[in-house]
């Protein structure tokens, strides 16, 4: 006998899976590459000119003179700051970057509405200067020790990444 | 209730459209900002020849224009060969471990004896082999500079030599006299206004100036003789102040070889047993200098394009020989 029961499936939010988070990060890095880094490729080619691959000698050439190193550092900083803006503005505005939209995960604040400060704070890891560079090691390790799978920057900014789960109550 | 649901759906669609418009505009803005910053950075990198040598092993340092002690600039662009800048470039080339030899591209009528000596002395102190390539003109002070290198290559059509010193000027006292103007001489020290064009030069002052010129000439001759491994007597015979063509200079031992860039690089390759890969060493330009260069080059090519198209038909009928 078939019972015409109402749909009992319920959507609940929980911690986003690590796989989804990783995929969203990779997707965002690809977007950052296309939108921001692509413009700097000519500059990098010129800085490393004469080297078909980034061999040790190419690095020697770049670092042979300090102004050359200065230009490289400047470019990397500009790219990082623009990437920081990309991640933070989209997360503040929509709770999601494009990568996060693809895998349907969302950044939420644990203190109410997500603020700009929280959004910028949680993405500080992308700036390649000390002490933020330490987050490259600490952040992913911290995920495994936090009950909400948060990175250390997320703990500090009081944010977390969530996804929707469908709970099946009594469907056929 | 159905109406409310439809209204909510409509609002959600509008929100979604706004969201994607914002995202697209935001990405375009980020892209444009990156493009502008990278473009400006590239502009500065491109002109800073000393930092961007790639896999080059030969530094090319230009000695173009009148040799002066300090560079003079106007409207954002600097001209001439300032010894202060050239010495700095030699320092950079000498200190750079990737650079194995330095090639001086000379195209200058000479200039200040002090500035020429400064460059020449710095070349003499270099640890690396050096070559001078005299293109159109490498005369007087520019020849002095060239002699400091290990090898001089000159185009056979080039003008070189001019081993002499000049201090001539236009005397204006006759002109002033004609217009009833007079020079009110107020000096403490008999020869303080030595060489002023506003009075007729007395014989004793002429002798003083001539002595100075002779001394500089002697210094020039002895430097050339020392640098070129020639005797003072040999150089003095050639040091009449006259120009020599590249071919005449070769016959008289003032240059080592006729040719151009290929021959100059060949000397380096043979001497060092390397494959010469040259890179221009230039002083970084300021932002305004870079802008001036862009506008000058653009204006030049626009003008050249118009001129070429206008003269195209005329050129077909006029046979000209130019050197």
How would you explain this protein's 3D organization?
With 172 residues, chain A is mainly alpha-helical. Helix content of chain A is 55%, strand content 12%. Chain A has a 3-stranded antiparallel β-sheet with strand order 1-3-2. In chain A, helix 1 (18-47) runs antiparallel to helix 3 and helix 3 packs across helix 5 (116-122). In chain B, strands 1, 6, 7, 8, 9, 10, 11 and 12 form an 8-stranded mixed β-sheet that branches. Chain B has a two-stranded parallel ribbon with strand order 2-5. Chain B starts with a helix and ends in a 6-residue tail after the last helix. Chain B has helices at residues 2-47, 83-95, 113-124, 141-147, 173-178, 203-228, 232-238, 246-251, 261-272, 287-317, and strands spanning 58-64, 67-68, 72-74, 77-79, 81-82, 101-108, 130-139, 151-154, 159-161, 243-245, 257-258, 278-281. Chain B has 2 domains: 1-47 and 285-299; 51-284, 2-enoyl-CoA Hydratase, Chain A, domain 1 (Alpha-Beta Complex), CATH 3.90.226.10. Mean pLDDT of chain B is 82; it is low at 46-51 and 312-323. Chain B has 10 helices and 12 strands. Chain A binds chain B through residues 31, 35-40, 42-43, 46-47, 49-51, 57, 60-61, 64-65, 67-68, 71, 74-75, 78-79, 82, 85-86, 89-90, 93-94, 98, and chain B through 19, 22-23, 26-27, 30-31, 33-35, 37-39, 41-42, 44-46, 48, 50-56, 92, 96-98, 277, 284.
């Amino acid at each position: 006998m078939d019972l015409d029961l109402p749909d009992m499936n319920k959507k609940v939010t929980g911690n986003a899976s690590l796989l989804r988070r990783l995929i969203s990060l990779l997707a965002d890095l690809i977007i950052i590459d296309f939108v921001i880094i692509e413009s700097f490729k000519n500059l990098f080619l010129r800085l490393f000119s004469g080297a078909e691959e980034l061999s040790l000698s190419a690095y020697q050439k770049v670092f042979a003179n300090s102004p050359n190193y200065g230009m490289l550092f400047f470019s990397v900083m500009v790219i990082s700051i623009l990437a920081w803006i990309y991640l933070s503005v989209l997360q503040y505005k929509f709770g999601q970057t494009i990568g996060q939209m693809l895998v349907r995960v969302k950044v939420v604040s644990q203190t109410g509405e997500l603020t700009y400060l929280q959004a910028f704070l949680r993405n500080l890891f992308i700036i390649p200067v000390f002490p933020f560079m330490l987050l490259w090691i600490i952040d992913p390790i911290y995920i495994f020790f936090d009950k909400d799978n948060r990175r250390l920057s997320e703990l500090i900014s009081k944010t977390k990444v969530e996804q929707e789960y469908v709970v099946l109550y009594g469907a056929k | 209730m159905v109406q409310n649901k439809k209204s909510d759906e409509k609002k959600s669609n509008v929100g979604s459209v706004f969201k994607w418009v914002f995202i697209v505009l935001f990405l375009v803005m980020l892209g444009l900002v990156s493009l502008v910053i990278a473009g400006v950075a590239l502009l500065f990198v491109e002109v800073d020849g000393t930092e961007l040598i790639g896999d080059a092993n030969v530094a090319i340092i230009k000695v173009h224009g009148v040799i002066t002690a300090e560079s003079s600039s106007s409207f954002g662009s600097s001209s001439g060969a300032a010894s202060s800048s050239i010495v700095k470039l030699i320092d950079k080339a000498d200190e750079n471990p990737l650079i194995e030899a330095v090639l001086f591209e000379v195209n200058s009528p000479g200039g200040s004896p002090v500035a020429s000596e400064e460059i020449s002395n710095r070349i003499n102190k270099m640890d690396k082999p050096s070559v001078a390539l005299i293109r159109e003109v490498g005369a007087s002070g520019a020849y002095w500079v060239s002699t400091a290198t290990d090898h001089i290559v000159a185009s056979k059509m080039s003008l070189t030599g001019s081993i002499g010193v000049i201090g001539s000027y236009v005397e204006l006292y006759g002109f002033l006299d004609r217009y009833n103007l007079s020079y009110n001489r107020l000096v403490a020290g008999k020869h303080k206004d030595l060489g002023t064009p506003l009075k007729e030069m007395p014989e004793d002052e002429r002798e003083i100036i001539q002595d100075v010129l002779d001394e500089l000439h002697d210094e020039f001759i002895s430097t050339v003789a020392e640098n070129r491994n020639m005797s003072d007597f040999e150089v003095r015979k050639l040091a009449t102040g006259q120009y020599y063509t590249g071919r005449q200079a070769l016959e008289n031992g003032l240059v080592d070889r006729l040719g151009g860039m290929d021959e100059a690089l060949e000397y380096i390759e043979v001497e060092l047993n390397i494959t010469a890969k040259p890179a221009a060493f230039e002083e970084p330009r300021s932002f305004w200098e870079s802008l001036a260069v862009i506008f000058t080059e653009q204006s030049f090519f626009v003008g050249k394009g118009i001129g070429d198209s206008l003269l195209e038909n005329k050129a077909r009928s006029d046979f000209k020989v130019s050197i």
